[in-house]
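Hi F.,

I've been meaning to write this up properly since the lab meeting, where we talked about keeping a consistent format for the predictions we share between groups. The idea is simple: the sequence comes first, exactly as it goes in, then the structure tokens exactly as they come out, then a line or two of notes. No screenshots and no reformatting. I'm using this chain as the first example so we have something concrete to point to.
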Amino acid sequence: MKTLEGTTVGILGGGQLGRMDILAGRRLGLRFCVYEPAPGATASRVADEAFAHGYEDTEALARFAAAVDVATLEFENVPRAAAELVAAQVPLRPNPHALSVCQHRSREKAFLAEHGFPCAPFEVVGDATALPEALARVGTPAVVKTAAFGYDGKGQVKVPDLEALDPDAIWAALGRPHGAVVERWIHHQGEVSVVCARGVDGKTACFPMAENVHVDHILHMSIVPARVPEAVREEGEALAVRLAEALDVVGLLAVELFVTDAGLLVNEMAPRPHNSGHYTLEGCAVSQFEQHMRAVVGLPLGDPSLLTPVVMVNLLGELWADGEPDFAGLLADPSVALHLYDKGAAKKGRKMGHFTVRDRELGAAVARAEAAFLRLKG
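Output, unedited:
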């Protein structure tokens, strides 16, 4: 690879995670090339070069790979064939296998089960006719999830019991997918996540566990440190490290977990920076985005230690329904740090930005974040 300041990193995907990767990588002197089918994407606008072509365009992908020294991705919906084409020309971190496992729920669940990781009981089904037997074996309440392209609560239907089961209606509500996962609904005390970094040398470093609060299946707030016993934090970090090693991830692996009476259960994985890790921008000695860039280009990992209790709050498009939110009111608290993603039109459920709040006391940080969010809404 070239000298650090001459290294060009390719990013598959052009969303806000790629944008924040680039902004962090600039501090290291890195150059960036983004491959994103949608012209003018938020990451593309801050990159040195951008390719606005479809993932099926093999010639464009080959030119993209030829223009970079190493590549990564910022979301999972990159076709495996595209990832493999790039990986055949330059190092792709994470590797195509890790991407393939994490982008498809049935492969993800199978991987967890085969490697002995704790997860909810599940069955993989190919069509609506298989739902009744699968639900009977898994038990109810349950949730039926599309095998692919589900995020932020999309692509899933809860089934409370078998009495009023309508398989065709469930399949239609899922968009008639090519396969689904039937999963036991887990009664849990909370949801947490751990972002684990792994370098090319195999060394790992975990960011502090985040406690996550969801509204309408979309992450609303992450609270750090998570308000769970230390043993739970240690268990979560150990699981994240084992998963990163099992997938041979280089870069970041975010692991979402359910907190249950029987211990932690793995819900989902993402081989990239994660929404619940945004708190690291102000809360940690190194952010998840810089850490990801360090790992991708082969640098030693940074210190993930928490500097102060911190809370992250997402800003969704509905906050713009009556015009721009009251950012002046939000920033009236000097401990608030605002991040806007420059994504253009605000839409309901679309993540337009986030803010963080720090305080020496965690309870005070939560209270200040809640108050700041109310001021923002006006």
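Notes:
The chain is about 30% helix and 25% strand.
The longest strand covers residues 251-260.

If this format works for you, I'll send the rest the same way.

G.
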